[in-house]
Amino acid sequence: MHFDVIIIGAGAAGMMCAAQAAARGRRVLLLDHAEKLGERIRISGGGRCNFTNRTVSADNYLSHNPHFCRSALARFSQFDFIAMIEKRRIPYHEREHGQLFCDESAEEIIDMLRDACDDGGVKWAFPCAVKHIERNEGEAVKRYAVATDNGSFSCQSLVVATGGMAIPKIGASPFGYRLAEQFAVPVIPPKPALVPLALAPELLEPMKPLAGATLDAVAQFEDAQFRENVLITHRGLSGPAILQISSYWQMQEYRSGKKQPVEIDLLPGLDAGAWLEEHRQGRVHLPNLLAERLPRRFAHEWCALQGGEKLVTRPISELSRRDLETVATRLNAWPLMPAGTLGFAKAEVTLGGVSTDALSSKTMEAKAVPGLFFVGEVVDVTGWLGGYNFQWAWSSGWVAGQFA
Ligand SMILES: Cc1cc2nc3c(=O)[nH]c(=O)nc-3n(C[C@H](O)[C@H](O)[C@H](O)COP(=O)(O)OP(=O)(O)OC[C@H]3O[C@@H](n4cnc5c(N)ncnc54)[C@H](O)[C@@H]3O)c2cc1C
Fold first, then answer.
1. At the topology level of CATH, where does 197-341 sit?
2. Whole-structure pTM over 0.90, yes or no?
3. Which sequence spans correspond to the domains of the chain?
4. Distance (Å, whole) CA 166 – CA 163
5. Ligand 1 close to Cβ of residue 53 (< 6 A)
């Protein structure tokens, strides 16, 4: 059974690529080891799929080459995907930070992509496990031999769209990385990203009374900062601001082994030092003052955590200037050293992956392996929370679909 293009992984990038290649008249086989098509699309955005963002640029992505994603994002932009959604008459709405969601169901996006594949005559194989792949050197047409538990196939172009490692129980596998290594395409070790952060027991124990508190705060790490909710959990920190900053915190490990803490600004937009100074002469207690701007229970527990009894029991006027300065610094930059992350089981995406150095940003083809393409999350391009990861899947899949 010969095809022009075989695509492994029928997720967001794989389906987009298949539909595009088929629309060019290529004979395409799309295979996946999962029972259900597009499972990650189905469960995304609480079942409504945050399919893209109103504003997308390379600044919304982390990669060892931050410029790599520019070309694909420009050639198939968020506006191109929105146009597809509108042509299909899928109702959608915008939420904060430009995030676009389906009004009704993520299934509508899966149906749209499946129909686009069917229109071009894409052949499907799922569930279908790949046993091994060989490259036939010197062959111009039957370059790749793909042995599966559904039979053996050959193709001219092989597209790897097997995604990252997040949530293995819904079909994530390291297959794409292993295949890259088989063809000497370098892989940057994958790490969980957009992931809750764990705290060590000595920090977690005193923070236990704060579990469940949600704060409007800024999570900061190096130059990155995100103002959204921070959630304190019984295992550490979560909520959108923490998920966003976790990717940057994980990125530092590639640069140096020495970990730095993340910082939480509990009073965004407010100079805590100046604010405390205004109340310096008053009889108000610090927890009560903080409760004007933070959840009351949190304000009390946080003060106890910072300075023991005196911050809770004495009025501000009886606290030393030094104590107040320390409190002010910590209110605007509360340093918390994560012990690690909650891992791929709880991550939304994967940092690292197939090195962009080895790929053409114009085509997504491996520079040294003609006919071998990598698209979507398997590549070392990781988006922020907010529809950016799907946009990368659509853009990279679309681009490869023009050349595979
Ligand atoms: C819970 C959750 C919610 C998310 N919500 C959002 C959101 O709202 N917005 C957003 O932008 N991003 C979201 N993401 C991230 C987004 O889902 C991914 O970045 C995106 O799906 C990546 O697309 P992909 O095609 O590269 O990979 P995937 O969509 O993961 O598809 C990969 C496909 O390859 C198949 N596969 C894997 N290994 C093999 C193998 N060995 N053989 C055959 N097939 C294989 C898998 O079964 C899967 O179908 C979410 C992720 C999770 C986990």
1. Elongation Factor Tu (Ef-tu); domain 3 (2.40.30)
2. yes
3. 2-192+349-403, 197-341
4. 9
5. no
CATH of 2-192+349-403, one of 3.10.20.30, 3.40.50.1820, 3.50.50.60, 3.30.565.10: 3.50.50.60
Q: Does residue 238 have its Cβ closer than 6 Å to ligand 1?
A: no
* Fold equal for 2-192+349-403 and 197-341: no
DSSP code at position 196: P
Q: And the tokens for 145?
A: 């031999």
Give the Å distance between the CA of 87 and the centre of ligand 1.
24
- Distance CA(44)–CA(349), nearest Å, equals 12
Amino acid at 110: I
Q: d(Cα 331, Cα 329) in Å, to the nearest integer?
A: 6
DSSP 335: E
Task: Give the residue carrying structure tokens 């104590």.
Answer: 323
C-beta 102 within 6 A of ligand 1: no
pLDDT, tens digit only, all 404 positions of the chain: 899 999 999 999 999 999 999 999 999 999 999 998 999 999 999 999 999 999 999 999 999 999 999 999 999 999 999 999 999 999 999 999 999 999 999 999 999 999 999 999 999 999 999 999 999 988 888 899 999 999 999 999 999 999 999 998 888 999 999 999 999 999 999 999 999 999 999 888 888 888 999 999 999 999 999 999 999 999 999 999 999 999 999 999 898 778 899 999 999 999 999 999 999 888 899 999 999 999 998 998 899 888 778 888 899 999 999 999 999 999 999 999 999 999 999 999 999 999 999 999 999 999 999 999 999 999 999 999 999 999 999 999 999 999 99
Distance from the CA of 94 to the center of ligand 1, in angstroms? Answer: 22
Distance 163 CA to ligand 1 centre (A): 5
